[in-house]
Amino acid sequence: NHVPVAIIGAGPAGLTLAHLLHLQGVESIVFESRTRKDVEETVRAGILEQGTLNLMRETGVGARMEAEADHDEAIDISINNERTRIPLTELTGHKVAIYPQHEYLKDFIAKRIEDGGELLFTTTVDSVENYEGDLAKVTYTEADGSSTTITADYVIAADGSNSPYRKLITEDGGVRARHEYPYAWFGILVEAPKTQKELIYATHPEGFALISTRTDEIQRYYLQCNPDDTPDMWSDDRIWEQLHLRADSPGITVSEGRIFDKAVLRFRSAVTEPMQKGRLFLAGDAAHTVPPTGAKGLNLAVADVAVLAPALVRALKKKDTGLLDSYTSLAVPRIWKAQHFSYWMSSMLHAVPGEDHFATQRRFAELRSVLESQSGQRYLAEQYVGRDLPRFEV
Ligand code: DHB
Questions:
Q1: In what residue span(s) does the FAD-binding domain sit (predicted)?
Q2: Tens digit of each residue's pLDDT (9 = 90 or more) over 257-303
């Protein structure tokens, strides 16, 4: 049994890659340890950059996103209850869409199934071997307990930030750069009308709050919290008190309703270099993690596979591995720029624990310096809407 490309993980990186390969006539098999229901229901971030939107549209998976997503032309930044609008589209010509990651995944899963692609849920990969030889070997176990070994020209580990395959690269001369942040987000889903159409990134001496949305009836809010907080430390009363304190501003009152989901999101940065060894490649969170501020994670995963897909097609169809050999060097500069943007926004918007008056006022001043300058606003907007995806002929 042989497959050209074996993909571990049915997240944004794995599913997008399988779809792009299929469009170029290269078949793959995708292994996912979780159930389809789990994958389709896990709550994650919700911003698609213009490049990601374009890719969905151009490759025939954009119809539902087009119809259902909120397409936003601005964000608001609120400092100590004073709001400034950043007109993203006016400044950059680009928009973003609020379309949750699990909706993105649903669309790609449906498309993969419609196209007859092999997508195995509840299937664990037990081993990847011989990836430095002339054919890799992948052994996997399905839900019924049956175990199979196949050969693959290439294996892509797109199995998220705990990928066990990353070690195969870092243990042997690779580098894993990490950064921990002294804060986290407490995220809630609420049955409430929209506070306003566009997102509000709010900062306050007490910390950060983000007013996001899901539908006309369901809203997504986040509050800065401590990394070791648990949901039971956040009563509904405390949540509403802190959301109003941090994110209300003249003319805007955070809309309230029944809270039906509470979760703590960790803040981490990590970058793995290189992202490849022999026939094994890392994509998405398996290679790099960004903190949630700015919601770059999915978009970075899509950017990885925008390089990897044409590179694999050239290698498999034309026996030309030039692009594949350059995968890490093509992907990494963008990853570091996204790290920088997520870190920078996080540092301006969050209060470090025990922050003194000097530190609070300095970060407010940094943010105001950006917002009061046309070029500062444009810089922030350009980073927020993201860069075009790399394009390669195959
Ligand atoms: C959302 C998450 C983010 O990290 C962000 O920057 C904007 C929106 C969200 O989940 O809606």
A1: 3-341
A2: 999 999 999 999 999 999 999 999 999 999 999 999 999 999 999 99
* C-alpha radius of gyration, the chain, whole number: 21
The span from the CA of 218 to the CA of 238, in Å, is 20
Whether 212 lines ligand 1, by a CB cut-off of 6 Å, is yes
Task: List b or e across 270-308, with b for residues whose CB sees 16 or more CB atoms inside 10 angstroms.
Answer: bbbbbbbbebbbbbbbbbbbbbbbbbbbbbbbbbbbbbb
Strand partners, 98: 47, 70
Query: Rounded to the nearest whole angstrom, what is the distance from the C-alpha of residue 77 to the centroid of ligand 1?
Result: 13
Residue owning tokens 């060894």:
277
Does residue 47 have its Cβ closer than 6 Å to ligand 1?
yes
Give percent of the chain with pLDDT exceeding 90: 98
| pLDDT, tens digit, 9 for 90 and up, residues 374-384 | 999 999 999 99
> 3-class DSSP state for residue 100?
coil
Is 213 touching ligand 1 by the criterion CB < 6 Å? no
End-to-end Cα spacing for the chain: 26
CA 248 to each of CA 11, 189, 240, 254: distance values in angstroms, whole numbers, following the listed order: 35, 18, 11, 6
Fold of 72-97+184-266+354-387: D-Amino Acid Oxidase; Chain A, domain 2 (3.30.9)
pLDDT at position 394 is 87
What is the dotted CATH code of the domain comprising 2-46+100-180+268-350? 3.50.50.60
Asked if omega into 274 is within 30° of 0 (cis), the reply is yes
Q: Which residues pair with 258 in a beta bridge?
A: 191
Domain-by-domain residue ranges, the chain? 2-46+100-180+268-350, 72-97+184-266+354-387
> How far is the C-alpha of 294 from the C-alpha of 37, rounded, in Å?
27
Matching CATH topology for 2-46+100-180+268-350 and 72-97+184-266+354-387? no
Per residue in 353-375, pLDDT (tens digit) is 999 999 999 999 999 999 999 99
DSSP for 246-294 reads HH-BTTB-----EEEEEEEE--EEEEEE--EETTEEE-GGGTEE--STT
| Model confidence pLDDT, tens digit, residues 188-246 | 999 999 999 999 999 999 999 999 999 999 999 999 999 999 999 999 999 999 999 99
Which of 237, 182, 193 is closest to 354 using CA atoms? 182
